[in-house]
Amino acid sequence: MRRFGPTNVGTRCTREERGTGLFRLTAISAVILGLLALRLYWLMQTYWDDFRALKPLPWWLLAFAPSGYLLASACLGALAARLGRPADGNRNAPNAWAHLFQREKIGMVRCRLKSGRWIGGLYDRGSYVSAQGPKRDIYISRAVQFTDEGAIPRTDDGEPQWAGSQRQRTGLLVKWDDIETLEFTPLNQGDGHGSR
């Protein structure tokens, strides 16, 4: 499970994704080994006899060879990850559902169910989305009462009319299969809706 800012997006890896990740790791390791092959050959030619005879090796070889390999691996891995992303810096999400909810956003969610009923609420730190797998759903931590037309009734203070009591807010769990449309309106964290 990965954590994305104020939201949780469940990202259970599929067998295909694990295979792709393993292939990338193997490919990058092969590239690094290929780039360092001549240097490794020189080190073996120069110090193999000393190593077999249990003679002390130079301090710089023991200090910099392992860390140099790790540093080269990290740099090439970061470069490969950067080149693998789209130009706008967005992560490659497996679907639009995952793309929307992996962002660090707080906002109002409004869903029209296949039955025609409107439901939704505030998607914030207590909310959760399962973005992958056969059963996708969304948990909205602060549900709002909607009118039949999909409008949000407001209190005298201008706040949304939350479901449940003032002391105990009501959450809402919605299955993706029940949703006809979903609207997400981002809110600034300074808005009154984002406070608990």
3D architecture notes:
The chain has three helices and nine strands, in the order ββαααβββββββ. Strand 3 and strand 4 (118-123) form a beta hairpin. Helix 1 (15-52) runs antiparallel to helix 2. The protein has a five-stranded mixed β-sheet with strand order 1-2-5-6-8, with no helix packed on it. Helices cover 36% and strands 22% of the residues. It is an alpha+beta fold. The two termini are 25 Å apart.
Features:
5-stranded mixed β-sheet; elongated; 4-stranded antiparallel β-sheet; single chain; disordered N terminus
- Give the proportion of residues in helices: 25-40%
Q: Main β-sheet: number of strands, strand sense, barrel status? A: 5 strands, mixed
Evaluate the radius of gyration. 26 Å
Report the structural category. Answer: alpha+beta
SSE string, helices as H and strands as E: EEHHHEEEEEEE
